[in-house]
Design brief:
The protein is mainly alpha-helical. It contains 6 helices and no strands.
Length: 191
């Protein structure tokens, strides 16, 4: 019974925190790439995040195109999520380990957003080519990653295969950087 309650609590904590962290990360990306404020997706993200971001931004201003306040909020939400999960399963964890886990998970989450943005953009280019609000955002998001690869890798039979090495590179960064940091953080937090 106790493990079922823990599993249910873990599901609720992970789902609620991950959904909001996802929206906060999207906000950071949209501001960084200067997406049109009146794009429907931008409006949706702003309306969901404004109540929490605005009070923090009064104390921590933006730096150029980086919403420092939102970055800090992502790390705070990650920290709270893993602290609650740690308390739920093992009791009070080491706070330094939780900070490291929060940073590693935020990094992994961010890289996964770019990975799936490239994947969705590639699929949409085959299924529904055109200029929609989502394709505009996906193009602006992925161009900084895709352009360098497109300069090096030519079209193969008229098909752009650059998403494959870029997505592979993102996965390698997750495996070589984010996951080791996550493991170190877990070792520190739960021993």
């Amino acid at each position: 019974m106790f493990s079922s309650i823990n599993a249910a609590g873990s599901l609720i904590i992970n789902t609620l925190f991950d959904l909001y962290i996802f929206v906060l990360l999207i906000r950071i990306i949209l501001v960084a790439i200067r997406v049109d404020y009146y794009n429907p997706i931008s409006q949706f993200v702003v309306k969901l995040t404004q109540p929490i971001v605005n009070p923090v931004r009064k104390f921590i201003p933006n730096y150029k195109n980086i919403e420092i306040s939102t970055v800090i909020l992502v790390l705070v939400f990650e920290f709270i999520k893993f602290l609650l999960l740690g308390i739920l399963f093992v009791g009070m964890p080491n706070v330094i380990g939780i900070f490291l886990i929060a940073f590693a998970d935020a990094l992994q989450f961010s890289l996964n957003i770019f990975f799936y943005a490239i994947l969705i953009q590639a699929v949409m280019s085959w299924i529904q080519p055109g200029n929609t609000p989502i394709t505009q955002i996906l193009t602006r998001m992925t161009d900084p990653l895709m352009r360098p690869a497109q300069r090096i890798i030519p079209l193969v039979g008229g098909i752009d295969i650059t998403p494959i090495p870029v997505m592979l590179g993102l996965r390698l960064i997750i495996i070589l950087v984010a996951l080791p940091l996550l493991n170190i953080g877990q070792t520190i937090a739960f021993t």
